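Notes taken during the Thursday session

The instructor put the following on the board and asked us to keep it in front of us for the whole hour. The protein is UDP-glucose 6-dehydrogenase. We were told not to look anything up and to reason only from what is written here. First, the residues (258 in total):
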Amino acid sequence: MFEQTSTYSTDNQSQRLEHNQATETNLYGLNKIIAVGYDQNKSQRLPISRYSLKISMIGLGTTGVASGIGLAALGHKVVAVDHDQRKVNALNQGRVSSVDLKLKALVKQVRRLNNLVASCDLHHAILSTDLTMICIGNSSIQKTTADATIMTSVIEQISATLQSKRDFHLIVICQPTASADIQNFIGSDIEQRTGKTLGKDFGLCFVPLVLKEHQELGDFYTLPNMSITASDTRSEILVGKLFNGFKNKIKFNRYIKM
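Then, after some discussion, the predicted structure tokens were revealed:
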């Protein structure tokens, strides 16, 4: 089903830190925040990104919130989307429900830099961004029927918006596992709904992203080596920019339609 195409590391040379608290600079990359301080004198160094993408992030659960805040801190412009107005309001006010101290310390920073905004308007978010990350459902491998229903609804909404979007748009589905049948079904479904061609008008990637509660930001910035399925070379390049600066290696498998 898949053809392995490339393996590379997104690691950048580490930079010297002068402070234990959250540190801001614009000398090393596009992200101004290079470290986040938490729990007195403890801090975590952030990857240094050389790119700034416009990202729509669907789902304000554990993975969506941590990924959205984490990417915004690296200089990406993130629109976090959820149907729950309370979650949207909380994030726009710099509040997260997580007990992760790193996440609580970082969210106010990215809001102040205007790198993160939350919204209920998925249509506008897709039209104004380069790629959409879908982070819905449980963080466990076992997916529920409710998750599948939500995913179907999200794909329908994305497809409706893509019909009126001229530019190439990448859809990144973040799930622990996704069978070849599911991958082919989603790609074919979007093609049928939009009249567009996968790999030409839009791209599709599957990222095995799993973040544990209470330590989700630390998990995000220290992702393990990943095998990512991508529909085309342009999608591979965009995902490479998305995780630029991370220390993990990414192996791409080429998505092949049945």
